[in-house]
Amino acid sequence: MILRYYLNNAYFGSALRGCDEASLHIFGKQASALDHEQAAFIASLLPRPLPRAMFIALGKRATPPSDPHEIISEAKKIGLQWAENIELRYSYALALQRSSPSNRLIR
After folding, report:
1. Contact predicate 31/20, CB 8 Å
2. What is the pLDDT of residues 95-105, one digit of tens each?
3. Under a CB-based contact definition with an 8 Å cutoff, are residues 18 and 26 in contact?
4. How far apart are CA 34 and CA 103, in angstroms?
């Protein structure tokens, strides 16, 4: 119950609160509809929310990205140090998820 409350209220950057809001803004769909890679990306944001520059860049897109690697690449293009940290955390989250199918983002 505590973990669910945290995930539903955690700060994801630029006024985004909770996994659903972050999922909707970043991927254009509810957290419950994310694939494994997208869920791992959202989980990797918890300790390092979206910086304002990335929030603005995502808001300018005609369609939300479907691949977390697109977001990381875009962050690198605009020179955000955040990209390297998230890329490492994302690869770690994916590795954990692949090694244990029960490690899923709580919805």
Report:
1. yes
2. 887 776 555 55
3. no
4. 14
3-state class of 35 per DSSP? coil
Residue matched to tokens 């909770």:
18
CB contact at 8 A, 31 and 16:
no
Place of tokens 């970043």: 26
Residues of 77-88 as b/e, b for ≥16 C-beta within 10 angstroms? eeebebbeebbe
Which token pair is 78?
């605009």
pLDDT tens per residue, range 49-104: 788 888 888 888 889 899 999 999 999 998 888 899 899 989 988 888 777 655 55
- Tally of residues, the chain: 107
> Which residues are within 8 A (CB) of 58 and not within 5 positions of it... i.e. 6 or more apart?
25, 26, 50, 64, 65, 71, 74
Instruction: Give the Cα separation of 45 and 63 in Å (integer).
Output: 21
Q: What is the dihedral of CA 96, 78, 71, 61, to 10 degrees?
A: 160
